[in-house]
Amino acid sequence: MASHDTDLSAATWRKSSYSNGTGGDCVEISDSLPGIVPVRDTKVPHGSALVFHTTAWAPFITAVTEGELTA
Questions:
Q1: Strand-pair partners of 29
Q2: Quick one: 63 exposed, middle or buried, by C-beta within 10 A (0-12, 13-18, 19+)?
Q3: What is the tally of structural domains in the chain?
Q4: 59 is in which domain, residue-wise?
Q5: Exposed/middle/buried for 38, CB within 10 Å: 0-12, 13-18, 19+?
Q6: What is the pTM of this model?
Q7: Is residue 28 part of a domain?
Q8: What is the C-alpha to C-alpha distance for residues 39 and 67, in angstroms, rounded to an integer?
Q9: Is 8 within a domain?
Q10: C-alpha 19: how far from chain center
């Protein structure tokens, strides 16, 4: 993960396509910042975010898309 000092003020957020539509378990991601992908809870938009390097995010998304991860 990236430093806790990462400035996310320029991030453009979007709801993850894997979030449910009931307003419960929703996450937002930003793919507008070079080299990192921040993830936050939609219910706490001004709270903290987990920040991943794109080199870690890409394999994670591939694993999710291919069904390699199960709940």
A1: 14, 39
A2: exposed
A3: 1
A4: 24-65
A5: buried
A6: 0.76
A7: yes
A8: 20
A9: no
A10: 11
